Structures are given as C-alpha cells and as structure tokens.
Amino acid sequence: MNKHAPKGPVRPKAKKGTFGRVVKKLFGYYPVLAPLTVVCILFAAVTSSIPAIFIQKVTAAIEKWYKIGDWAAASKEIVPLVLTLAVFYVLSMIAITLQSQIMAYMTQGFLHKMRAELFSGMQNLPIGYFDRNKHGDIMSHYTNDIDTLRQLVSQSLPSLIQAGTIVLCVFSIMIYYSIPLTLLVILGVVVMLLVSKKIGGGSAKYFIRQQQAVGKTEGYIQEMMNGMKVVKVFCHEETTAKDFDDINNALYEDSFRAHAFANTLGPIIMNIGNIMYVIMAIAGGTLIALNVPNLSLSGMAINISIVVPFLNMTKQFTGNINQLSQQINSVVMGLAGASRVFALMDELPETDDGYVTLVNAEIDEQGNVTETAERTGIWAWKHPHGDGTVTYTKLTGDVRMEGVDFSYVEGKQVLFDVSVYAKPGQKVAFVGATGAGKTTITNLINRYYDIADGKIRYDGININKIKKSDLRRSLGIVLQETNLFTGTVMDNIRYGRLDATDDECIEAAKLSGAHDFITRLPDGYNTELTNNGSNLSGGQRQLIAIARAAVADPPVMILDEATSSIDTRTEAIVQKGMDKLMEGRTVFVIAHRLSTVMNSDVIMVMDHGKIIERGSHDDLIAQKGTYYQLYTGAFELD
Prior knowledge:
By secondary structure, the protein is of the alpha/beta class. The chain has three domains: 110-345, ABC transporter transmembrane region fold, CATH 1.20.1560; 357-394, no CATH class; 399-632, P-loop containing nucleotide triphosphate hydrolases (Rossmann fold), CATH 3.40.50.300. It has helices spanning 18-29, 33-49, 51-66, 71-122, 127-132, 135-177, 179-226, 228-233, 237-289, 304-345, 438-445, 468-473, 489-494, 502-512, 515-519, 538-552, 568-582, 617-623, 626-632, and strands at residues 357-363, 369-371, 379-384, 390-394, 399-409, 412-422, 427-432, 453-458, 461-462, 475-478, 487-488, 528-529, 556-560, 586-590, 602-607, 610-615. Strand 15 (602-607) and strand 16 (610-615) form a beta hairpin. The longest helix has 53 residues, at 237-289. The two termini are 19 Å apart.
C-alpha cells in the first residue's frame, strides 16, 4: 500500500433508489424471463385470493337449499364451483413450479453477472482507490454483500409481489362484500403497520450497521493474515486478538440487535392477526344477530355466507401483511449489501483521454517509420492529428520530467520542481531515504497518478496524450514487493506477455538468472505456485518477477528495489542478467544498495521530494556531498 495515500476507507454515499436499481438490473439482465416470472407470481397470487368468492357462493347455496332440503339442486350448483376452483389450483401449481425454476436460474445468473460487472469495473479503478480502502473490505463486496442480494432476488422480491397482490385482491373482495367489516380489518392493519414501522425501523438501522461491520471484520482478518510474520516476530498475538475481539464484538452487537428486532416483529404481527380473527368473528355474529344494514358494493345483506369467507379473508389479509413485514429484514439486508455494491460500481474509473497509441513498426532504408501487424521488435507511437493526418514516432525511450510538482493529498506536496532527463539507453538511478519520493517518480511515469504541475514527455510526446494502456505496455517494471499468481512458473513468466512462447519464457528466465533454480524444482517450469509463491524463497520469487519483465521486452525498464530480496551471492548472478536486460533500454533504478547503482549514467540523490544532487558515481564522489557520505558510510539511508 502506498505510504503517502490517505488512510481509512473513503467511499461515496449510496445513491437513492437502490431497490429500483436492483429491479432494473434484474430486468436488464433478463428482459424476457423476469416479466414471465412476474406473470406467474401474479397468476398464483390472484388464484390464491379467489377461494373467498367460491366459499361465499358455496355457503350461500348451502344456506339457500338447506331451507327447502333440496340437496340435489344444491349439488348441481356446488359441484361446478368446486371443479372450477380445482382447475384454478392446478393452473396455479403449474405457474408456481415454473416460477420457482426460472427464479432459481435467474438468481444465480444475476449474482454471476453482478460479480462479473463489479470485477470488470474494478479493473478500471485508479490505483489510489486501492490505496485508500482495505482489500478485505473490497473482497467483502464479492462475498457477503453479493450474497445478501441472493435472498433479496430469490425470496424477498417474489414474496413482496405475491403478498402485495394478494392483499390488493382480498381487499377488493372485502370491499365488495362489506365495507364496515373491511374498515374493521383496516384498523387492525394500521396497528400492524405502526408496529412494523417501530420495530422494523430499528431492525433496518442495525442490519445496515451489520453489513458495514462485516466488511470491517473481513478487512482486519485479511490485513492480519498478510502480516502474520510481523505479528509473531513482535509477539503481538494477544494485542492482535484483543483488537479483533473489539471489532468482532461490534459486529456481534449490531447483529444481535438487528435479529432481536427482526425476530420480535413476526410473532407480534401474527398475534395481532389472530386477535383480528376473533374480533371479526364477534363483530360478524353481532351484525347478523342485530340485523344491521350492510354497506357494500354487492348490495347483499350481512349473513353467514359473507361472515364465513370474511373470517378466512381476514386471516389471509393479515397473514400476507405479516409476510410483507417479515420481508423487511431480507429487503433491508439486501439493500444494505446492494448499496455497498453500487457504491463500488459508481466509483469513478481511471480517466484516460490519451489518443496516441503504441504499434508494431518497421523502418525502411530511408528511415521512414510505418505500421505493421507483425511483431518486429520495433515499436512506434501512432499520433493522429486534428487535420486527419497520422504521424509515427519511433519509440526510443527518451523520458523527460520538467519542473514536476505532485501531491497525493491536496495540501501535502511530496515532489517539488523535479526535473529528470533520461536519454535513450541511459541508466538513471534514484537514491535517498524512505519517503524521499523515489517510487513516486516512477508512479508518475506510469501515470498511476497525474502530476499537479510541470511536464512529463516520452519521446517528445506529453504522456497525457498517450493512452494509458499503451504507455504502460512500453514500460517493464519489477517491484520491491513481488506478486506471483496461482498457476505454473511458466504461467507467471508469461504474464509479462501472454503471446510469448515457451522458448521465449525460458530465454527470459535464463537472462534473469532464474533458469537454474527453476529446473531444480519438482516439476520445473510446470511447478504449481500458490499463495504468492510461498513455496519459493524471496529471492526466487524476485527472479521470476524479473524474468516476467524480461519476456515483455519493453524499451523502458523500472526497477524498484528489484534486488532487495536477493542475497549478495545471488545478486551477483542476477546482476549479469540484469546488465543484459538493460542493454539498449532506458532504465530507472531505485535502490538502497549503492553497489547496484554505481554503474548508472546518472545518479539522483533525493531528499524530501527534491533532487539535491545529480551526476555519475565519480562526479558525486568528487563533490563529497550526501552521496559521498552515503558511500563512505558517514551516514546510512533510513
């Protein structure tokens, strides 16, 4: 992580309308299946609402024919009703089965597409984003946050649609049969909503805090796993465990409160529904006994055929209100996760307004540069102009920084009026204490960050005009911290240029001095590496990283403490390969070991973001300044 970057996660607030955005994404991914699923859910919901109508008609028929004892006539009226209801139930079963199968397919596909979109977008984020945010917290977006969307999409959304539709249908039927009884049910629903708002609001607040706490916990675990050797060497196991307990306890408290609220809501709503059932039975019986006039759209009087289905509708109505309230927890968790996912998606990508590109080229006898599709080993900058013409400039590796100022954070300048002139084929070295600005200079050449003032030119072209991907393709870099990926040794070397052949990778390994130890590995170049090459020594990992840069065959190399993990004996072997690697290339070297920079064409001594001395090794020794004191051991680099 960049030591100059601001600490702690900095993320924008999630935009409003997260729920609508999730729905829009789902329908965007599945424009045919998603509407079909909604149709199936609506059909099943409507079908489950209409039994009240059939019950009313059957009850009325029984009541009608009971008075005269004509059961044959009653059966002729009842049997068609029952058969019609049975047909509706069969169709509903088919719709539910179809909906469940499609929903299972869409849910997993939705998560798959969301992760892919999230990861694709993350590749375009600037380096500064990863400096500011814990990597474990970022990983939590792909695991915990995305997983909360699974329950939201697969369960909560269908349940909301189904329960909401049933509530509307049942409400319409109740209004049709009796407005007074419906108002009594609405009164109970108002009580339910007030309780849901009070308890559900507390649940929502803590579910959001739980999501944030999970990300913080995973970030801390990832950080401690990476630094386990440091923890052990300084005997900080107890302190680390205590710090984790504090973070874990915060997660426990938020989770406990969230689920305490959530688990209380369901039973309360359910019992309010039971009380409403009893009240409805008493009220209906009283209205029948007192022969109270009924106000309804149907015009029917209050009787048994209305009260009996009303009891079932009351149970169904309050039950689905309870179902809606139960989904609050899943919806809140899903939206909390979605907010974090969308916040990452909404991060501004790395800006790139460059239009000069890197192409393979060939040069004729007259020195004219032309573009070619074949790999020739000669590269050129393709520079389109406003008048429609295109010019080609051979890539030579001439890099110049003129009066560059830079700040990672506004108000805290780290580079002051830095000027560097690297001619093609020159080896330019930077020495100085930690934090002097050496690595920052190479970060600016790569355009990981943009300068505040000054100019950086590459073969006479302002690097702001060069497309970032093409600029970085022309630069080989070996970092102090080596990153190896899961795969074979050959795969890791080929990472420098994916179209490189096995022979080219082996030649690169020989050039870097890695070939000998690779051939002694159990499976040679096919040896599997895992966990950043933990089965190799630090020096061996660095040699593979150097080979990876060599196979890319770039005209400009940046070596940031490239031999820091290699012992003195191995360094002598590597240095020979490095010398071959640097032949004909412009090379920027950052090193603490002065022995690795003595043969540089230019050595720059840096202090607090300024170049205080520059010249060859002999020139700087003759000046008897800071470099001379470093070389003679008068003082050492921090």
